[in-house]
Automatic annotation (TrEMBL):
Belongs to the intradiol ring-cleavage dioxygenase family. Pfam families: Dioxygenase_C, PCDO_beta_N. InterPro entries: Intradiol_dOase_C, Intradiol_dOase_core, Intradiol_RC_Dioxygenase, PCDO_beta_N, Protocat_dOase_b. PANTHER family: DIOXYGENASE, PUTATIVE (AFU_ORTHOLOGUE AFUA_2G02910)-RELATED, INTRADIOL RING-CLEAVAGE DIOXYGENASES DOMAIN-CONTAINING PROTEIN. It comes from the Bacteria. Coiled coil: none annotated. One of its GO terms (molecular function) is protocatechuate 3,4-dioxygenase activity. Residues 98-126 form the Intradiol ring-cleavage dioxygenases domain. Its EC number is 1.13.11.3. Gene3D superfamilies: Aromatic compound dioxygenase. Keywords: Dioxygenase, Oxidoreductase. This is Protocatechuate 3,4-dioxygenase subunit beta. It comes from Streptomyces neyagawaensis. The gene is pcaH.
Length: 257
């Protein structure tokens, strides 16, 4: 029997109802999604089933994964954070500016942090060899960028508004437009990945990935805010999105922590 959007809608509603009951019964707010969130079928196959493995750094003679790779300003070019300038021609689609701050739980800036993004093009297609969506590729848009946060924890990207796309988990499954963010910490083993969404997307209620963040307030922290002052005259719309790494106002990080 083919899994339909109506089936997923019922499962999402049941998960939300169960969460509200847990809160009413005195359970703590769940800022992060449960790893076995059933409406998102892949989570059942991909999430870790064992607790994290602790590594005693003092007993590791190599510590290579805890000290490298190292990223510095020499590794970032002036156009790495401008995805509209990385090819000879102009990419197709609405140009947008995305900016924000990387913060810890106390609101302190995280300086010199490598931030990477990747996304679909304006037609909702990734420039990836395993992409199955038959929307057109854009020869002038690869959809990847990176930058370092400044002394105040700010990052800044210029890019193209990504399109929604089908993802085949169930019949008529569509992902809301989003941009993936990757934060590296001081080593690859500390890498965190999350997603930024856009205001008032009509696909939010139907998407089991964003709905896996069951708490409403936590889910809203994944949605950027339109900022007219950030919009560039005659060029791009502006969106602000801060990322909080831990604490009660932390931004959802994929696969938990």
């Amino acid at each position: 029997m083919t899994l339909t959007q109506a089936d997923i809608d019922l499962e999402i509603a049941a998960q939300h109802a169960a969460y509200e009951k847990r809160i009413a019964d005195g359970a703590p707010v769940e800022h992060q999604p449960r790893r076995d969130y059933a409406p998102y079928r892949s989570s059942l196959l991909r999430h870790p089933k064992q607790p994290p493995v602790s590594i005693d750094v003092s007993k590791d003679p190599e510590v290579v994964e805890l000290s490298s790779p190292a990223f510095g300003e020499r590794d970032i070019t002036e156009i790495d954070n401008d995805l509209t300038r990385q090819h000879h021609g102009e990419p197709i689609g609405e140009r947008i500016t995305v900016s924000g701050r990387l913060l810890d739980r106390d609101g302190r800036p995280i300086r010199g942090q490598l931030v990477e993004i990747w996304q679909a093009n304006s037609a909702g297609r990734y420039a990836h060899q395993r992409e199955q969506h038959d929307a057109p590729l854009d020869p002038n848009f690869t959809g990847v960028g990176r930058t370092l946060t400044d002394d105040d924890g700010h990052y800044h990207f210029t890019t193209i508004q990504p399109g929604p796309y089908p993802w085949r988990q169930h019949l008529n499954a569509w992902r809301p437009a989003h941009i993936h963010f990757s934060l590296f910490g001081t080593a690859f083993t500390q890498r965190l990945v999350t997603q930024m969404y856009f205001p008032s997307d009509p696909l939010f209620p139907y998407d089991p990935i964003i709905q896996s963040v069951t708490d409403d307030a936590a889910r809203q922290r994944l949605v950027a805010t339109y900022d007219h002052n950030l919009s560039v005259p005659e060029f791009s719309m502006g969106y602000v999105w801060d990322i909080v790494l831990d604490g009660p106002h932390a931004t959802w990080i994929e696969e938990g922590r």
